[in-house]
Amino acid sequence: MKIAILGTGMVGSTIGSKLVQLGHEVKMGSRTADNPKAADWVQANGEKASQGTFATAAAHGEIIFNCTQGMVSLEALKMAGEENMKGKILIDVANALDFSKGMPPTLSVCNTTSLAEQIQLAFPGVKVVKSLNTVNCNLMVNPKLVPGDHDIFLSGDDSGAKAQVAELLKKGFGWKSVIDLGDISTARGTEMLMPIWLRLMGVFQGPNFNFKIVH
Asked: Tens of pLDDT along 111-130?
């Protein structure tokens, strides 16, 4: 499958590398076609990895991962171009964290909406699925880093898109428990887990932990 990764940070690099290992053709997109971080990633990942602008990556991908910093995700997606994303699944893993006042960051979007909802509203022809934003990037693609059973969440308006994302999470990344929370508005809940997630990272002195829902 052809997959687009929008964003050149740790999250995009980690997810992109895993997808290449799974045999997918992955294009990493950024603001410029010659981004040095993307070039390093391509060199490290071989012939199935390539780079380009947000627009060329989005045009390439049958599935698109939004791995940009949440505060600039809407801007980056506008650069990617609605025409390049229309009808496709966009997996939004970003959190709208505002670091302008230092650590810990605050959420710039919360309570009455979410970043995922804003993306869906701005791009109605795109099938937005919120997932993976509640765990560290290494855990996203290797849930076995945390022993035992634990959960990852899905939010989205398109049931078929969510089923396809769930299959990728299970068969590709190794998640055993994928909880479908409902429509895209349920992303408010998972995005608002970030404040407690950041506090837990401080308590545990590291990011390798996750939530387990017991009922």
From this structure: 899 999 999 999 999 999 99
User: Is the overall model pTM greater than 0.90, yes or no?
Assistant: yes
Between CA 6 and CA 80 the distance in angstroms is 9
Q: How far apart are CA 87 and CA 215, in angstroms?
A: 36
Which pLDDT tens digit goes with each residue over 5-18? 999 999 999 999 99
- H/E segment holding residue 154: strand 151-156
Q: What letter represents residue 134's amino acid? A: T
Q: Answer whether 56's CB lies under 8 Å from 27's CB.
A: yes
**Secondary structure string (H, E, C) spanning 55-88:** HHHHHHCCEEEECCCHHHHHHHHHHHCHHHHCCC
In the structure encoding, which two tokens stand for residue 50, read together? 């390539």
Confirm if 162 and 156 have CB atoms less than 8 A apart: yes
For 151, other C-beta atoms within 10 Å of its C-beta total: 17
Q: How many CB atoms lie within 10 A of CB 200?
A: 15
Tell me how far apart the alpha carbons of residues 29 and 41 are, in angstroms, rounded to a whole number. 11
Which distant-in-sequence residues (6+ apart) come within 8 Å of 60 by Cβ?
Answer: 2, 4, 25, 27, 50, 52
> How are the residues of the chain apportioned to helix, strand and coil, as percentages rounded to the nearest 5?
45, 20, 35
Domains of the chain, first to last: 2-204 (3.40.50.720)
